[in-house]
Amino acid sequence: MEFSVKSGNPEKQRSACVVVGILEPRRLTPAAEALDKASEGFISTLLRRGDMEGKRGKTLLMHNLKGVLADRVLLVGCGRERDIGDKEYREIIGSAVTRLDETGTMEASCYLSEITVKGRDLHWKIRHAVESTRHALHRTDTLKSKKDDTRRPLRKLTLMVPRRSELANGEAAVREGQAIADGVAVAKDLGNLPGNVCTPTYLAKQAQALSKKYPKLKVNVLDKAQIEKLGMGAFLSVAKGSVEPPQLITAEYRGGKAKAKPVVLVGKGITFDAGGISLKPAAAMDEMKYDMCGAAGVLGTLVACCELQLPINLTVVVPSCENLPDGAANKPGDIVTSMSGQTIEILNTDAEGRLILCDALSYAERFEPEAVIDVATLTGACVIALGKHASGVMGNHHPLVHDLMNAGKSSGDRAWELPLWDDYQDQLKSNFADIPNIGGREGGAITAGCFLARFTKKYHWAHMDIAGTAWLGGDKKGATGRPVPLLTQYLLDRCTEKR
Ligand code: BES
Ligand code: MN
Ligand code: ZN
Predict the structure, then answer these.
(1) pLDDT per residue over 359-376, tens digit each?
(2) pTM (two decimals)
(3) Does CATH number 3.40.220.10 belong to domain 2-161?
(4) Where are the chain's structural domains?
């Protein structure tokens, strides 16, 4: 999908379609007004006759409007102007481009970024027009034998800005939007792949393929023997319940100064989580193919960072394996030794995410990080606490947590802090090892964070639980690509802060 930025009058665009907004109740936006004038009141007549109210999500396609150079005009209902926030704006863009795609318009000029969105500027509106368009047109049919192809799909969208002086700003916004959408697409596609395709080895191959594409990226994959040498007893204990070999993937992007400390992103890469011997119930177990969405999210963020060529150093670490029941699998009560030396009593083999993450977090120390952020579909408890709207975030350094929440707000990919108080640490006591891998039912998302906190004392660290946000279930089943927008925004914010 191609985007460009332009300024000019709507009636003068030689385009397959001009897209303008109609507000409720039957109010013309400035671009609609201009088309109305050029067509001697055609649009206002339609509105008066009741063809369109301006309800959000409704569209009306018109052909061969008198006085208008474009072949078509698409009116897009925007609702009441004062009700338009982030979510509404994204919905409006989504309904417009879906309609364009369905009606054989391969190219269009869009004036929707002129509508007022509460608290948002033109840069935000252009960037989110790009992200929302790519989101709405994302296909999930790669494994269908017959693709649900549109005959003449939307290929090019020109985003109109009010003045020539805004062109550069708009173009920068398009670049950001495209990079984030690229990262989101990577995260969605990896997430949606089934466990029999997206194995730990497959994930490692995908990471290696990225280093071919981006010259500033170096990828290193460690196999089981090398992971053993590092002493990652917790990670390996999970992996041994499967015939698929574990992989420890590291990708280093160097866009900053040689000596600048990197941000390290660690992503949970369980390519299928059956629970192990503490087997999960059968209902919706297929969705545990999404248990590598942390890995997909950090790889997607890496792609966005490479596309934007950000002037920072970024390291991504992905421990990847399957969690299956097997003769060799972890048993409840087993005690393993982590890379940090701390021993762990595995009271529930389904709390495997923290077992692979704790070793990856110890490994992260060697990069002398500026900050470490782990991203994981870690607990069902987080879904109960926050639902699917916000990712859970907690950490040992408040400014970092704060920056992540802010990045969530401005990117429309929100996170909410859970309290990582010492009081919760008391729930992690074992009679036989240094620490158990579960802390009881109460505050389950937090005690999972507390477990990880025992391995992150040497650096600034935050943990994001994306169990509720990384994918949707039901008839909308599919990966969301979150938290790529949040993490990319966090990196972008770091770059501007430094300047
Ligand atoms: N991958 C799951 C977490 C999960 C469950 C995410 C459901 C999204 C939906 C994780 O490995 C897990 O099984 N966690 C357990 C931890 C418990 C045993 C302490 C959970 O949340 O039930
Ligand atoms: Mn599990
Ligand atoms: Zn899991």
Answers:
(1) 999 999 999 999 999 999
(2) 0.98
(3) yes
(4) 2-161, 181-498
